[in-house]
Design brief:
The complex is a heterodimer of chains A (about 325) and B (about 270).
Chain A (H helix, E strand, L loop, with lengths): L8 H40 L22 E4 L5 E4 L5 H33 L5 H13 L2 H11 L6 H8 L16 H25 L4 H9 L4 H29 L3 H6 L9 H11 L3 H26 L9
Antiparallel strand pairs in A: 1-2
Chain B lengths: L1 H30 L19 H8 L3 H32 L5 H12 L7 H11 L5 H25 L4 H8 L4 H30 L2 H6 L8 H7 L10 H21 L1 H11 L4
Helix pairs in contact in B: 1-11, 2-11, 3-6, 3-8, 4-6, 6-8, 7-8, 8-12
Chain lengths: ~325, ~270
């Protein structure tokens, strides 16, 4: 900062103090709001997970330590019984579903997003139209896309079965969202359809920062385009891609709405968010559900720290 | 060889466009069908009946649900922008200790799994006595709209040249005057984009809306659509659901297409899914 000569050095210091004081006042409403809607509820949720609070008796919960997570009791016969989320097979099923979903969907979205971005980065007639078209899945509310797809994937009257039957790919109609074997597949299709555009736009922004003459030079040298992509483009786009992947990953790990509407009651797609809310609100196991949501929070926090640490991702954008 | 490559390229373009647009096209197609024709698979428009659209408004409280969504999303965005303008000025233009930490905290909150605060928020909403009112949603949506708007506006303000502020400082303008007289006029485009993205986020939100409202008159559109059902459990009214879906999606798509350049810029600056 270099204000004009009219300001003396003591005036400059005073100005800086005045600015910092004003900045504090400007920040207070936002910080207060975030404490109110984020920090305090998070603290309360974690607190609830150590109590036996129930939905019908929100204020009568007693502190029970780690019992919602894990507790054990040795019977007179010498047999030990374990209880709690950490030995609940339904919970581990949800953990496995979430991780599998997040990993597969984000990987495929990154690859497909990159392909779409490469297409959009080429110059051709109607490029604007294509970009507008891929914004449509992104703009459609998740619930609406879940409903649209569950209609298209309908076992009796769905168009997907009709197309596949006509093409001779399947011989009998598949109950995509209801069947145990295909429910996760259906969720993946819809999620990939909906979020690949987001990935593509972030990749495209990265691609557009690659200087054009790099490509021209490699063209003159006669290097194969595939090699150019892996040796030049990908390393240059990597920072943008890493940021896009972490955002998508965090989104995928907390997925709730799509699965709640598309494949309700299917244990093969039940994720951590779904099972946690189910316990909290529907099964009147408020504290138990809170313990599960706390575990999900811890899981995501650890994942982010690891990712940023190992991937050396710069999220703050301060070094621009 | 060259023409074969071009052909393959345009084929790929065609696939991308068809896959992107077809589901919505099919939803529109279905929404115009009634009776038994609903259960015949057609690839092209065969009938044009508005009866599903009439039914949507006769059944339940759909108009009310739309108004709820508009009210909740508008209020949430207005409150978030109000707080974000001053906060992002402080974060982008003033150097103070702990700024980096504060920015990272804000980013962390925007990536929060919402389920992690659900029970705490539930308690708070019950305590204040706003359960099953739009205010419960306005309060809870702040958790994702506020960090998002602050983050995007901060990146926007940081990129503005320092000179625009210097002249005002020399003239003895207070920080408040600098924001309202110097920055606000420059920030309109960024405010519109950020506001629109936050609006879409609030419009689409499901988890909080499902948990914090319990009656037809207070529900927002996504919850109302998810609960649309027929006379029996096995009779899903697909025509009506598709009509409702088209109704709530068309305005959003139009807005997105009008502002598409700005939205793409805002998305890439924020890097956060709207």
């Amino acid at each position: 900062m270099n204000p004009s000569h009219a300001v003396s050095s003591s005036g400059k210091a005073e100005l800086q103090t005045q600015r910092i004081r004003a900045a504090m006042w400007f920040l207070i409403p936002m910080i207060a709001a975030l404490v109110l809607v984020a920090a305090y509820p998070l603290f309360r949720s974690i607190y609830f997970s150590f109590t036996d609070t129930s939905l019908s008796n929100l204020y009568g919960g007693q502190w029970i330590g780690f019992d919602n997570y894990l507790s054990w009791r040795t019977l007179p016969s010498g047999k030990t019984i374990f209880r709690g989320t950490l030995v609940d097979p339904a919970w581990w099923n949800a953990v496995w579903n979430t991780v599998r979903f997040a990993f597969v969907s984000v990987t495929l979205e990154a690859i497909l997003g990159m392909i779409v971005a490469l297409v959009l980065n080429a110059e051709f007639k109607g490029r604007g139209l294509v970009r507008a078209a891929i914004l449509i899945p992104w703009a459609i509310p998740t619930i609406v896309s879940a409903k649209m797809w569950s209609w298209m994937l309908n076992d009796q009257f769905g168009i997907i079965n009709d197309v596949l039957m006509n093409l001779g790919i399947i011989s009998q109609k598949i109950a995509w969202t209801a069947s145990v074997d295909t429910a996760m597949f259906a969720v993946l299709i819809v999620d990939i359809w909906k979020t690949t555009p987001f990935m593509a736009l972030l990749c495209l922004a990265g691609l557009q920062m690659v200087p054009k003459d790099v490509y021209e030079a490699s063209k003159i040298d006669g290097i194969h385009p595939v090699k150019v992509f892996f040796k030049i483009t990908l390393p240059l786009v990597k920072p943008a891609l890493m940021v896009a992947i972490i955002f998508r990953m965090l989104d995928a790990l907390r997925i709730f709405d799509l699965i709640y509407v598309l494949t309700p009651n299917s244990s093969t797609t039940k994720t951590m968010s779904i099972i946690s809310r189910e316990n909290m609100i529907e099964f009147d196991k408020f504290a138990y559900g809170s313990a599960q949501s706390t575990l999900l929070f811890t899981f995501i926090a650890l994942f982010v720290i690891l990712y940023i640490w190992l991937g050396k991702v710069d999220l703050s954008g301060d070094n621009k | 060889m060259k023409s074969l490559q071009t052909l393959a390229f345009y084929l790929l373009v065609l696939v991308i466009v068809v896959v992107s647009v077809f589901p919505f096209y099919y939803a529109i197609l279905t929404s115009f069908k009634t009776g038994t024709s609903l259960f015949e698979v057609d690839y092209w428009p065969t009938s044009f009946s508005l009866s599903n659209y009439y039914s949507v408004f006769q059944q339940g409280e759909f108009l009310r649900n739309i108004l709820n969504s508009v009210f909740v999303a508008t209020m949430t965005v207005a409150l978030a922008l109000l707080m974000a303008v001053t906060a992002s000025y402080a974060l982008a233009r003033v150097r103070f200790r702990g700024r980096g930490l504060l920015l990272m905290t804000i980013l962390a909150v925007s990536m929060f799994p919402q389920i992690a605060v659900l029970s705490g928020l539930f308690e708070m909403i019950r305590f204040i006595g706003i359960y099953n009112t739009p205010w419960a949603l306005i309060l809870s949506y702040t958790i994702f709209t506020l960090p998002f708007t602050v983050w995007v506006l901060t990146t926007f303000m940081r990129d503005l040249p320092i000179e625009i502020e210097e002249a005002a400082i020399v003239d003895g303008a207070t920080p408040w005057q600098i924001i309202t007289k110097v920055f606000l006029p420059l920030m309109w485009p960024a405010l519109v984009t950020t506001g629109l993205l936050a609006f879409i986020g609030a419009w689409n939100e499901f988890l909080f809306a499902l948990t914090f409202t319990s009656s037809n008159e207070t529900r927002t559109v996504p919850v109302a659509i998810s609960l649309l059902s027929g006379a029996t459990q096995y009779e899903t009214p697909w025509g009506i659901i598709m009509a409702a879906s088209v109704l709530v999606t068309v305005p959003i798509i139009i807005l997105v297409l009008i502002f598409q350049r700005k939205i793409v810029a805002g998305l890439t600056a924020g890097g956060v899914k709207g």
